[in-house]
Design goal:
three-stranded mixed sheet, alpha+beta, four-stranded antiparallel sheet, 9 strands
């Protein structure tokens, strides 16, 4: 039974369906807190600091399921409140992608697929002149990508990591990973 249910006083396991946001201690997936989301277009969030967490949910959804106690001093904030509070809370480090960013990533993805890639996990064009992308279980970097012909994206990209031989190994999280 997950930790958040063991300490909540719930006697029967809670069935979690649909989309949700969880906070855990990497690399473990044991949830310290779990929030149901309104669907696949909401959820997630970011850490402003170790004591301030912003969720992409309205205020009425900022209570985790089974009412897991949030440690004293940790504040869960709705992203809608961040907009209202203005400069009191730091904005997330990542910027929201524009329509042009999505179109550019789509063109890059199509070029990679046309040149030998079978599955694209992600593409990031936000690193100056470099493109980073993960495809077919590998992570690549292509320097000065805008000057490279599309048909050479894959052949000129530098392989940074190859995870194809890695397999998930279930393991219990240590006690230290089960506490805030």
């Amino acid at each position: 039974m997950p930790r958040y249910l063991r300490t909540s006083g719930v006697s029967t396991p809670l069935k979690v369906e649909g989309a949700w946001t969880a906070i855990s201690t990497p690399p473990y997936f044991s949830a310290l807190a779990l929030w149901p989301t309104s669907g696949t277009r909401t959820g997630g969030g970011y850490f402003v600091s170790e004591r301030e967490i912003v969720l992409y949910e309205p205020n009425d959804a900022a209570t985790p399921i089974a009412n897991v106690p949030i440690p004293p001093g940790v504040q869960i904030i709705s992203s809608r409140d961040v907009k209202r509070r203005g400069s009191q809370t730091t904005v997330p480090p990542a910027r929201r992608a524009s329509v042009q960013d999505h179109e550019r990533q789509g063109r890059v993805g199509l070029a990679l697929l046309e040149n030998g890639v079978t599955w694209i996990e992600w593409v990031s064009l936000q690193h100056g002149a470099d493109m980073l992308f993960a495809a077919d279980g590998r992570v690549y970097r292509l320097s000065r990508w805008a000057s490279v012909p599309e048909h050479r994206y894959l052949s000129e990209a530098k392989l940074l990591a190859d995870f194809r031989d890695q397999r998930f190994e279930p393991m219990s999280a240590p006690k230290v990973a089960l506490r805030w």
